[in-house]
Amino acid sequence: xxxxxxxxxxxxxxxxxxxxxxxxxxxxxxxxxxxxxxxxxxxxxxxxxxxxxxxxxxxxxxxxxxxxxxxxxxxxxxxxxxxxxxxxxxxxxxxxxxxxxxxxxxxxxxxxxxxxxxxxxxxxxxxxxxxxxxxxxxxxxxxxxxxxxxxxxxxxxxxxxxxxxxxxxxxxxxxxxxxxxxxxxxxxxxxxxxxxxxxxxxxxxxxxxxxxxxxxxxxxxxxxxxxxxxxxxxxxxxxxxxxxxxxxxxxxxxxxxxxxxxxxxxxxxxxxxxxxxxxxxxxxxxxxxxxxxxxxxxxxxxxxxxxxxxxxxxxxxxxxxxxxxxxxxxxxxxxxxxxxxxxxxxxxxxxxxxxxxxxxxxxxxxxxxxxxxxxxxxxxxxxxxxxxxxxxxxxxxxxxxxxxxxxxxxxxxxxxxxxxxxxxxxxxxxxxxxxxxxxxxxxxxxxxxxxxxxxxxxxxxxxxxxxxxxxxxxxxxxxxxxxxxxxxxxxxxxxxxxxxxxxxxxxxxxxxxxxxxxxxxxxxxxxxxxxxxxxxxxxxxxxxxxxxxxxxxxxxxxxxxxxxxxxxxxxxxxxxxxxxxxxxxxxxxxxxxxxxxxxxxxxxxxxxxxxxxxxxxxxxxxxxxxxxxxxx
Length: 632
What we know:
The chain is of the alpha+beta class and 632 residues long. The chain has five domains: 7-171, Rossmann fold, CATH 3.40.50; 184-264, Translation factors (Elongation Factor Tu (Ef-tu), domain 3, Beta Barrel); 272-376, Elongation Factor Tu (Ef-tu), domain 3; 511-569, Arc Repressor Mutant, subunit A (Orthogonal Bundle); 572-629, Arc Repressor Mutant, subunit A (Orthogonal Bundle), CATH 1.10.10. It has 19 helices and 32 strands. Strands 7, 8, 9, 11, 12, 13, 15 and 16 form an eight-stranded antiparallel β-sheet that branches. Strands 2-3-1-4-5-6 form a six-stranded mixed β-sheet, with helices on both faces. It has a six-stranded antiparallel barrel with strand order 17-20-19-18-21-22.
């Protein structure tokens, strides 16, 4: 029988409603580990325990603070939970932090939960009925509306068995996390352990990690090696998505791994400062949200200053859902679909949250709703529509195959399948390993056709236009985009050295043929010392650039041989030079520069480039100040 998938249960609820006492009764672990917590009798920091459910399934338990001053810690603990254990004391009922914690869980998308009405031994049945009614009313507008409610007491043990059964039943409905994406863990605690060194803890939200793996700590950028892993206080060799883990790292100091940092595999995730989001604000506590209001972003275990930039008007009203972007003062490692919470720093209050639609990219401006219109397709449920919108936003940079899962938030195989469907449906184009929005290609193709026609007319002897020149002229950031444009444009042909119009062929006829014949005649007049391109242009009364282009064409066709910059020879003349040099070396063994000049009546300026050509082609071999016979 396959092992049951890992599970994380997180507590929620008002201060002094008995969350920690209930966890202690269920797990036999006191999660208040700090001396101050034990002295004051309140939870200040996140606490951790593990629980074996009746089915045998093991669960990690994250116990969160209930005090309003420590809600930021509660948010860090609630980010990666699979199941919420909402605790409401029978003698108090629903209180302020009950509502705020419930709102936070709802903003984070928590849809599985159980409510424990604790201290039920302190109230009679009628009062408990009233409390349960208030709890059900508080749950009604949230994702936990149908959560089971169990009356229990940590002090007497009453109701703990039904509570465990309810947790087990709800846990069975929770879909396991998929380990298909690269490893990602938000750090919620880091410390140094004597004899082991640096240890970090957190819930693995993606992928898996094994002893010996190398990891990158973002946003700091430090690399580390995994020395050891513990899960539920037991050493393991490997652990995957959905599990809480303590990871012992070598090669990095604890100070480089604060709460809110991320562990991931090198060359996978990137830290970003810009998030495109769908925000829902709380009608109960949120003021109108504008770009001037300082906010704190809670994402993973991070708590970072941020600014919100509405894309649908100047502000987001309380109780509204709207599109926006967040600029974050500190890098976050995120994927589309991740959930977040927004709070005001002063007065400290939860004001909203939502889900990520895209990470990175460029700031969008409202411009009469154009910014929102560009990203609204990202809110659609169909993955094809979402990826098409991502491609449109990526523009000329496209999306590499290896980055599809990071851009879309889908698993790698699903993201690739979505991209291939878009290509098959004509909504995307692929070149090499990069996908582009198909709407980019027609206007770029028209521009390419116009540019090629102009360049062919200006340079009739060039068979193609170099790809590098076209990339620059059309302002294309990637060669793959030029490949996609060429493939999608009728009448354009890609060659190994560049691109041309299909109708373009180099033809030396008419006046061009006359110029060619005159140029070759000049070379034949002085075959061993032919004129340079500039000298030939002056004697023929032609523009030097035209003569250069004609010589390049003649070198391509083999009618001349280019031996150096601006130096060209007729093939027959070079053959005579090679034969005379071989004859000389057969008789004299060596050849000096002076002897070579005398053989062909050359100046040193003409002789040296020709000798160097003979060296390169193996006719001669330089030996100090003389040449000897080469290897050919």
